[in-house]
Amino acid sequence: MKERAALIDRTSRNDFVTYGMVIAAFVIVQILSSMGVLTNQLQGLLVPLCVYAIMAVSLNLVVGILGELSIGHAGFMCVGAFVSALFSNQVGGGMPSLLRFIIAILLGGIFAGIFGFLIGVPVLRLNGDYLAIVTLAFGEIIKNIINAVYIGIDGRGLHASLTSANKLVDAGTGVILINGPQGITGTPRDSSFLIGILLLLVSLVIALNLTHSRDGRAIMSIRDNHIAAESVGINITKYKLTAFTLSAVIAGFAGALYAHNLATLTATSARFGYNMSIMFLVFVVLGGIGNFRGGIIAAVLLTLIPELLRFLSNYRMLIYAIILIVMMLISWNPASRAFMEKHRLGGHLFKKKNTAGKEGE
User: Fold this and answer.
1) Which of 84, 270, 286, 340 is the S-S candidate for 104 at Cβ 3.0 to 4.6 Å?
2) pLDDT in tens, 113-139
3) What are the structural domains of the chain?
4) Of 359 and 277, which is predicted with more confidence?
5) Helix axes 97-123, 73-91, angle to 10 degrees
6) Are 73 and 243 within 8 A, CB to CB?
7) How far apart are the C-alpha atoms of 267 and 147, rounded to whole Å?
8) Half-sphere exposure of 151 (CA within 13 A, CB side)
C-alpha cells in the first residue's frame, strides 16, 4: 500500500509539474510582452505554438498510450477547424464572442470525435504499417474533399456542388459557406494566447486523467501485450476506440483554435496535409513517446527554432536539421532510454524490443 501511495504521489507531482510548466510559460510570455521584448513575429507565433502543443498531446494518446501509429491526425484537426469556422460565420454577432468561440471549440471537438469514432471502428482492427497507411489516407481524403466541394445556403435550403459556386445560391439572399479551394473567409479572429493556454491545460487534464485512470491502465495493457490483455477479459475494441476518439476530440479543439486565428481558412497541404501530420509525429517522438510534457516542449522548440534562425537565411534549415539529429541522438541513446524507462516515459517501447530479443534467443 505504501508503494502504491508513493507511486500515486509521484504521478500527481509529475502532473502538477506539467501544468505548472504551461502556466509558467504563459506568465513569462506576458512579462516579456509587457516589457516590449517580443517581436511581432514571435507574437504571431503564440497561438500556433498552442495549436501544435495541443496536437502533440492529442497524438501522444494514440502513439504513446495506445501504442498505435497514426499519421493522419491533421485530418481531425481539419474537421474541427472547418466545423467551428462554419458555426462562427453563421452565428456572427448573434451572441457574445466568447460564448460563440466556446461553442465553436466544442463543436469542432465533437465533430472531430465523431469522425474519429467512425474511422476507428474499421481502422483499429489493423496494426502497424496498415493502420498508418489508412489514417494517412483519411487525412488526405478529408483535405481533398473540402478543397473540391462548394457549399451554399439560401431560402431554399442547403446546396452543394463539385464544379463551382456560380448559381449555387440565389443572388443577394444566399451565402457561400465553403468556396472550394478558397475555403472559408471572414472567420472571427477570436483566438488568443490566453485561450490557447487554457485549451492546452484542458487537453492535458483530459489526457493525463485518462492515462492514470482504470481505462488508461487497460489501454496501456493493450499497448504492451494485446493478447494477454484480451485473455483477462479486457475489451480491446472498446478501449482502443476510447483512446482514438478522445485523441480526435482534442485534435478538433486544436483545429478550432487554429481556424479562429486566420482570416481565410483553406484546406491546403501546408496546413492539413501529410507533412503536417508527420510534423506532429516528430514532436511526439523527439519529446519522448508517451511523455506529454516532452511533446509540448518539442512542439514549442521545433516551431520556434526555424523562425529564430531566419537571420541566417539559407543556412537556417541546415542548422535546424542538425538540431533535429542531435535531439534524436539524445532522446534515443542508452542513457536516455534507461532514464525514460525508469520514469515511465515511453519505456514500454524499449521493453517490447528487449522482450522480443530475449524471445528470439
Assistant:
1) 84
2) 999 999 888 888 877 778 888 888 988
3) 2-279 (1.10.3470)
4) 277
5) 150
6) no
7) 6
8) 14
Q: For residues 116 and 123, what is the distance between their CA atoms, to the nearest angstrom?
A: 10
Give pLDDT, residue 81.
95
Residue 212 CB neighbours (<10 A): 15
Portion of the chain with pLDDT greater than 90, in percent: 35
C-alpha cell at 302: 521545433
Length of the chain as a residue count = 361
Q: What are residue 176's DSSP bridge partners?
A: 152
Lookup: cell for 31: 512579462
Q: Are strands 175-179 and 150-154 parallel, antiparallel or unpaired?
A: antiparallel
CB neighbour list of residue 65: distance below 8 Å, 6 or more residues apart: 207, 210, 211, 216, 219, 220, 223, 243, 290
The angle formed by the CA atoms of residues 217, 245 and 77, to the nearest 5 degrees, is 130
Which pTM was predicted? 0.86
Long-range CB contact pairs, 33-37, < 8 A, 24+:
none
Contact of 73 with 247, CB cutoff 8 Å? yes
Contacts of 267 (CB under 8 A, 6+ apart): 78, 82, 142, 143, 144, 146, 147, 181, 183
359 pLDDT higher than 50:
no
Separation between Cα atoms, residue 270 and residue 146, nearest integer Å: 14
User: Is 81 in a helix, a strand, or coil?
Assistant: helix
DSSP letter for 61, please.
I
Terminal-to-terminal C-alpha distance of the chain: 37
Q: For residues 61 and 216, what is the distance between their CA atoms, to the nearest angstrom?
A: 10
pLDDT of amino acid 4: 57
